[in-house]
Each structure stands twice: as C-alpha cells, then as structure tokens.
Amino acid sequence: MENDRLDSDRITREYYDSLLIAMRHIDSVIPDTGVKLFGKRFSMPICTAALSHLNNTCEDGMAKMAEGAFMADALCFSGMGEADELKRMCETDASVIKIVKPHEKNEKVFAKILEAEEAGCFGVGMDIDHAFSADGNYDNVCGLPMRPKSLRELISFVESTHLPFVIKGVLSVQDAKKCLEAGAKGIVVSHHHGIMRSAVPPLMVLPEIKKAVGSRMTIFVDCDIESGMDAYKALALGADAVCVGRAIMGPLKDNGAAGVRDKLNEMKAELTAVMERTACDRLNKIDDSVIYHRNF
Ligand SMILES: Cc1cc2nc3c(=O)[nH]c(=O)nc-3n(C[C@H](O)[C@H](O)[C@H](O)COP(=O)(O)O)c2cc1C
Predict the structure, then answer these.
(1) How far apart are the two ends of the chain, measured CA to CA in Å?
(2) Considering the domain boundaries, does residue 26 fall inside one?
(3) Which domain holds residue 39?
C-alpha cells in the first residue's frame, strides 16, 4: 500500500514537472487572484485539502487548519472526523466543505450530511474513492465499513441537502459525467495521494474532464500540489481551484494556524508571479496556450 502511494505520487510529481510554461511579459500587470466558489469570493484559488486526524500534527489540528485557511481568506475542506471537531472548524469562521466517507449504511451518510449542515458548513461531499481496499475487499476506514455508491445513491445524497455537494476522488471522464448527472456542484479530481498504483496524474486527465463537463461543475484538483506553480498548471489545464494537503502539514506542525496561513499566502504569491509572467491579469485568463510538454 505504501509503495502504491509512492508510485502514483512519484509519477504525478514527474508529470507536473514535465509541464513547462511559456512567458508573456508585454502588456502584463499585477493580477487579481480572487475567485468566486459557490457564490462566495476568496482571495485565492488555493484551498486546504480534506485532511483528517491532524491531532498528531498539532493540537486541535483540524481547527487550526481551518483558522489558517480563514486568515488567508481561502476555502477549507475537511475529511472524516466527529461532529465536535467539525463544529470547532466552523467556529473559526472558515468556509468549510465537509467530505463524508462512503459509509456502508446510507443512514450514516445522511446523518453526517446533517451534522455538516448543523455545524454551519459551507458545503458537503463524499470521497467516493475510499470504497474498496487494496486487497480486493470493501474498505474499512478506522473500523468503519465502506461501500461503493451508485449514481442513484449519489443523487439521493445531493438531493438531501441545500448545501453544494462536492464529489471527491474523480479520476475519469466517466465518473465526472456521472457526478454531473447526480447534480453535484463540484468535483475534486484526485487519486487520494496514490490510493491505487499507476493512477493517472490528475493534471493528465483534467483536460478531458474539463472538456466533458465544461463550466457546469466547479473543478478542484488535489494530489501533490505544493506550490503556486503547481496551482497555475492545474488552472491552465481546466481546474477552478486546487487543494493542498500534505504540503500544509509541516507548516501546521511548526507554526499552527499561522503556518497554514503563511504556506497558502506563499503559494498565492508564486501563483501571482507566474500570472504576471504569462500576462494573465485574472484567473480566467489562464489557459493551456502557455503549456508545453517536456519530451526531450
Ligand atoms: C493525514 C491525511 C488525512 C486525510 N484524510 C482524508 C479524509 O478523511 N477524507 C478525504 O477525502 N481525504 C483525506 N485525505 C486525502 C487528501 O484530502 C488528499 O486527497 C491527498 O492527501 C492528496 O493531496 P496532497 O498530495 O496535497 O496531500 C487525507 C490525507 C492525509 C495526508
């Protein structure tokens, strides 16, 4: 399992680094990195990823992550966890999208969606890629049994809530189209830091997904996004925003909420610098016309 993760992470990193950027300085200005996500404006298209179990990284780590996102004026995702922790995240005033696990029993899923609504979450969703384990069985996460979800079940989750629903763990055009059919407002293109060996890098499949769903869903990307340059490449290939997971864990451990804020702001600064050097004054000016694939 650990080798699978390393394998897909390595291939993903190599792919990101194989994408090269042409520069355009003439007529360029200092850009605006602001983005509107589900009707709310944030200062950057860089969000904290759906992490969980951060108490070993930092005391009340999930709430500190949310606080850091709030201070940077960024959107915050949350992974699995209990209601009180989610409440503390929302009490930081961060806009939190809670990603619910694909629990075996749908009653549990509906209860977690309600929990997110009651905590005051900004959105809710599901990581559909945690249904199966690496040994061919259904997954079991921290003692909790998981199951794959059908399109019909996804529709029932989406319809059960007034919150925007974001489906995480989409890594194909087929699933992206099904998410659209389910009524999801967004997807996270992700291989869940290498949940399967030889998983296609999210940025490699992203252009086809964007072509298939257009602007009908908000497209987030995660996995190995570590810098403003990585974020720029994802936006150029069709993402509306990116999520950063492991790259904020070191700063969270060292400096708590301020560490998360600083890492997000550092990434925003690099994104700004690349936008300046490619004559993109707004995020929607970023496109793949500057991208070259290194194959020498
Ligand atoms: C400590 C840790 C806990 C995570 N917990 C969850 C979770 O509960 N739910 C989820 O959807 N993803 C979870 N993830 C996956 C992340 O959301 C993300 O998809 C993955 O780490 C890839 O992004 P990264 O390369 O920026 O870390 C977790 C990742 C880490 C490192």
Answers:
(1) 32
(2) no
(3) 2-19+31-293
Output the domain CATH number for residue 286.
3.20.20.70
Closest residue by Cα to atom 26, ligand 1, is: 245
| pLDDT for the residue 1 | 52
Determine whether 192 is an active site residue: yes
Domain membership flag for residue 24 = no
Distance, CA 47 to ligand 1 centroid (Å)? Answer: 13
Q: Single out the residue of 255, 227, 256 nearest to residue 242, CA to CA.
A: 227
From CA 237, how far away is CA 92, in angstroms rounded? 33
pLDDT digits (tens, 9 = 90+) for 232-248: 999 999 999 999 999 99
Domain count, the chain: 1
Helix (H) or strand (E) holding 136: none
Ligand 1 midpoint to CA 244 (Å): 9
Residues flanking ligand 1, CB < 6 Å: 49-53, 79-80, 99, 127, 168, 190, 192-193, 222-225, 244-247
Predicted confidence at residue 295, as pLDDT, reads 82
Give pLDDT < 70 ranges for the chain.
1-5
Find tokens 């929607």 and name the residue: 284
